[in-house]
Amino acid sequence: MKLISYSLVFTTCLLTHCLLASEKDLTKPPANTEPNSVFSRSTILSDGGKHWTIVPKSSVIFAPDSLKNKINSPPVGKFLSWKDFYKKNSDWIHSFPVDSKLSKGVTTLKFDRYARLKQVGKVVVAVHPKGPISIKHEAIEKQKPHN
After folding, report:
1. What is the rounded distance in angstroms from the CA atom of residue 83 to the CA atom of residue 132?
2. Which contiguous run of DSSP H or E holds residue 123?
3. CA neighbor of 71 nearest in space, from 98, 96, 52, 91
4. What are the tens digits of pLDDT across the range 1-42?
5. Phi-psi category of 105—alpha, beta or left, where left has phi over 0 and alpha has psi -120 to 50?
6. How far apart are CA 80 and CA 47, in angstroms?
7. Using an 8 Å Cβ cutoff, are 60 and 72 in contact?
8. Which residues on neighbouring strands pair with residue 43, listed in sequence order?
9. Residue 91's CB: how many other CB atoms inside 10 A?
10. What is the reported pLDDT for 34?
11. Full-prediction pTM beyond 0.85?
């Protein structure tokens, strides 16, 4: 329940910020973001000129070197919701469904599964039914366990 609440609060805060901001403000996050602002807790995804969106920090599980320029680059163009941004950019973004246990770090994303996600060749974003969600770094096995 807390995960759904966080996602809903995150989206509501973001939409409120965007609706209250002028059109100029929507082209980039504020330069002096507050420590607890939506932007300070987010990762910016940009398609390189037309659209951008934000997702919670630690929701990007993997990004190939060839696509790292699309992550946290200065946003240019129009802000889109995650749903609309993903529809327009699914050619380079892979949404990876996770459950609340993985998000909280109760379970882990095993190395074999992580390795397969890396082979997709896309930016991999963890999603819960309502949208992108953070995953604890410790929950991802990025190296093969030693037996």
Report:
1. 10
2. strand 123-128
3. 52
4. 444 444 444 544 454 444 444 333 444 455 555 667 777 789
5. left
6. 11
7. no
8. 55
9. 7
10. 65
11. no
